[in-house]
Amino acid sequence: MADDSGLVSSETLSSYNMIKTETQGRVAVVTLNRPKALNALCSELFYEINDVLARFDNDSSIGAIVLTGSERAFAAGADIKEMKDTEFIGNYKSNFLGHWTEQISKMRKPIIAAVNGYALGGGCELAMMCDIIYAGEKAVFGQPEINLGTIPGAGGTQRLTHAVGKSKAMEMILTGSVNLDAQEAKTYGLVSAVFPPEKLVEEAIKTASKIASKGAVSVQMAKEAVNQAYELSLSSGLHFERRLFQATFATKDQKEGMAAFAEKRKPNFVHE
Ligand code: CO8
Q1: CATH, range 216-262
Q2: For the chain, is the Cβ count within 10 Å smaller at the N or the C terminus?
Q3: For this protein, what is the EC number (predicted)?
Q4: Where are the domains of the chain?
Q5: Which DSSP helix (H) or strand (E) runs through 268?
Q6: Which tens digits make up the pLDDT trace of 157-205?
Q7: Is the CB of residue 225 below 6 angstroms from any atom belonging to ligand 1?
């Protein structure tokens, strides 16, 4: 049933303990909900995030996803209390954290992280696994793992360096205490927009709705092509992009999009 904001609770997904899920049109909103631990990422929470993301990725009625936390914390990192007594051999054999963090990287649909409050350690890494980051004015991004005698383990040394450059990433990761506030994160290009905390999720949903209204095939291809910019040389990336661009001409949505432009009307995409 829809509430005043138009959000609809998904009954089929109501069995989660540590997340809440809602849908609004073609947008799914996943809210981390472990307030007593500032959304620290324990196994159960990660299992639930992965499970719900996989479901939404395979649900053709969903075109984009918003991932958020509370106003106090997006996520304050991996759960320190859960992992503190684990050992190398066990972690190595079970690929500790590996399987938790792979699902988001595999997602075909765009995910917007709407970050209010703390995004520290694994929380910052979780945000950086998403495709777009929006921040509330009081957001704090940091990689404090060095203070715990360890280092970032889910992309912090790589994605943060790509996002903010080597010097700032080194300063943040090596000191564990140089954090970015929302405006700084925007200046460095880590986040693309900053909003008042209470407007953040609404703004993220607006952008997600806009994305979800486009042809789903071209959205998926565009995401794939942008992500290759991190993996390939320029010439290989340009080649990859051109092939996908050419492939869009096999879709109904390309025919519809260009016909609508020529006929001066809005396109009616069918996501095929
Ligand atoms: N793990 C477990 N519990 C946590 C965590 C955490 N990361 N963060 C906060 N909590 C708990 C606190 O222990 C406290 O619980 P309790 O009430 O039972 O004592 C509760 O949340 C509230 O926290 P505080 O009382 O500390 O709240 P403050 O407002 O005083 O401070 C801070 C907020 C500054 C965020 C503080 O809680 C803090 O420093 N937290 C730890 C931040 C941190 O070091 N994060 C990095 C963790 S290591 C990591 O993330 C490795 C990444 C590996 C990849 C992960 C996969 C994506």
Answers
A1: 1.10.12.10
A2: N
A3: 4.2.1.17
A4: 10-212, 216-262
A5: none
A6: 999 999 999 999 999 999 999 999 999 999 999 999 999 999 999 999 9
A7: no
